[in-house]
Fold RING-type E3 ubiquitin transferase.
Amino acid sequence: MPFLVIGAIAFIIAGIVLRQWRSTLGDSRAMLAAETYNVSNLEELSRAIADELGSAGSFRQTAEVKGIIHCEQPLMSELSQRHCVYSRTNVIEQCEHTYYEEDGEGNSERKTREESNTLAESDLKIDFQLEDDTGTIQISLDGAEIDAIEVVDRFEVSRGESISFGGFSFDPTNRLPVGTDSKRILGYQFNEWILPVGQYVYVLGEVSDSDGILKVQKPSNPGDRFLITYKTEEQLTQHKQSVARKQQIGGFVAFAVGVVCVIAWLMTGN
């Protein structure tokens, strides 16, 4: 029975990992298959379709575009206080909690465990203009998979007083009961990811003029990918291919373990 159970678990793991491998491989192939356009090319294609049909609004094209982020009224990131078009912020409070637990003989034993509480969490975004050497095009962030730059990764040890970081501030004395000894604040973990104004980005999505202007947006086909990242296309494809190779090897190894366990179970009956 142990061999059969281990084999079943190995087959399940193999199925999950190999499914992830196919998904990763599909992402890599989608990026390689998508054609790179400059803004001028897309404007010409859009006008040609509009002239052929007699009106604008029907142009749709899967494309890669690359350029610099521009935005007249950008966001201000909370922690790093930088102008950006996307900002994701997390502030986590790390605590040590003391509690008592009875053993089998009824004796009370003092124990501690670490806990974490989210103090602040935000995910802000705004549409922007992408500029290349030939022009500008609007980028809609709705529904996009966003790969942003981590600009803050800091742990601050608690000193029992109010803390502030950029535009964030918090006073722990207003929340914890005076004199409590069951919970001790260890410190605060600050993390922030942004797409700053002026950053070079790679965008894979659907170009459309359905709203009256030419823009890159979430594809109408649910299976197509919509990605905005600060990484280059070469970096992305190399990373995806490396991950896919590891997933493929891991999946086949797990499958082989499952086969060996089933054979062992058939031979031993255990």
User: Anything to note?
Assistant: Residues 154 and 231 are 23 Å apart (CA to CA). The helical segments are 2-33, 39-53, 233-268. The chain has one domain: 37-232.
